[in-house]
Amino acid sequence: MGSLDPQVIEDLGKGVIQLLSDGTVLRSNNIDFDYPLDKNDGSVLIKDCQYDEKHQLHLRMYKTPSIITSSRKLPIVVFIHGGGFCVGSRAWPSSHNCCMRLATGLNALVVALDYRLAPEHRLPAAMEDAFSAMKWLQDQALSEKVVDDEWFHDVEFDRVFVLGDSSGGNIAHHLAVRLGGGGGFEELAPVRVRGYVLLAPFFGGVARTKSEAGPSEEHLTLAILD
User: Fold this and answer.
1) Where is the Alpha/beta hydrolase fold-3 domain (predicted)?
2) What's the angle, vertex CA 93, arms to CA 167 and CA 214, rounded to 5?
């Protein structure tokens, strides 16, 4: 019977993700990153929230605890992680560390979302999830409790920027296409996306674009983001 056992037919990243002959997908929980998670010394508030109950999807918010005394409210940065659409998480060091620095360096509310991964969930599932996260943000803006919400009372919902890394850049691009053409603001009002930043965006194909040869995730810094 041993010959009938499922066999590994695809192995990506030396065991990071494996596809078996019966269609099963295995992802390793023991990935050896060359760098640790940045420790939080209390300078950043962090909160995890579920934004899609049907698909059990979560996001992570980052915000400095300082009280804003000026009339200028905080912008919102939506961060979409990379990983070839197949791996990655808001909790990975490459995502978490970057979002920590964005929150402190830009004095912004950073929202890092997870999305359904391939090959179990084929595209455009990831694009649909990113849009669902934007609709969740809209729900917060329209909530009657937003004035008293410690996470949203001092943010500016009509000053949102979407930042995508690698495959996340591809997802951000598709968000821009969906929300562009003048109809996006009405669809998400009062949330308004003011700009998109694509970091080494991945668009596939045999030939690689110049942007795809950009800095690796572990070297993302605010200087690079600027």
Assistant:
1) 77-214
2) 45
